[in-house]
Amino acid sequence: MHRFFVCAVMAGVLGSQVAIASDIAPTDVKFEDMSIGQSLTGVPGNPEEGAKVLANRGLGNCLACHAVTPLENEQFHGNVGPSLDGVADRWSAEELRAIVVNAKHIFTEQTVMPAFYSLDYGINPRKDLEGKTILTAQQVEDVVAYLGTLKEPE
Ligand code: HEC
């Protein structure tokens, strides 16, 4: 049900963005070790847009599982996952891209973190999700750009 909602929102709000020819298709994304070196779009990510994706329940909904101090005015912060404060000190941009694209490649198959740019929905895939990702390629780049701003104070 939740997935359906995510897709309905995506289709409504972002329908025109879903397939941009120059984007790397989800099935063509190349993982090298634990990272993805190549931008999915070739267009630099916009951190402000990325912050919106993190907070948006219909998109990243990252705050349902992760606390982020600079976004603490946003609705709900969960603690299923670790706080993302200082995450740019722990992971490179290439690693952060890989985590957002498909966390299963970085953590374990059992991670509860959704794969945001993958067509691998696990067992029992649903017809209405076919060919769609939770985030667009550019939204992934925007999220990675925002995560890159999350450094611990010196
Ligand atoms: C359903 C819960 C859930 C959601 C939603 C979620 N994550 Fe996660 N995330 C986790 C968990 C749990 C981990 C820790 C790894 C593990 O145990 O699988 C994690 C780990 C991470 C890490 C590594 C953190 C570190 O300090 O090592 C990053 C970065 C991350 N998530 C970013 C995101 C972003 C960005 C989004 C939204 C686009 C998101 N997550 C959405 C559960 C979630």
TrEMBL record:
The keyword Thylakoid does not apply. The keyword Ribosomal protein does not apply. SUPFAM superfamilies: Cytochrome c (SSF46626). PROSITE patterns: CYTC. Keywords: Heme, Iron, Metal-binding, Signal. GO terms for molecular function: electron transfer activity; heme binding; metal ion binding. Residues 1-21 form the signal peptide. Residues 45-151 form the Cytochrome c domain. Pfam families: Cytochrom_C (PF00034). This is Cytochrome c551 monoheme subunit, sulfur oxidizing protein SoxX. It comes from Pseudorhizobium banfieldiae. The gene is soxX.
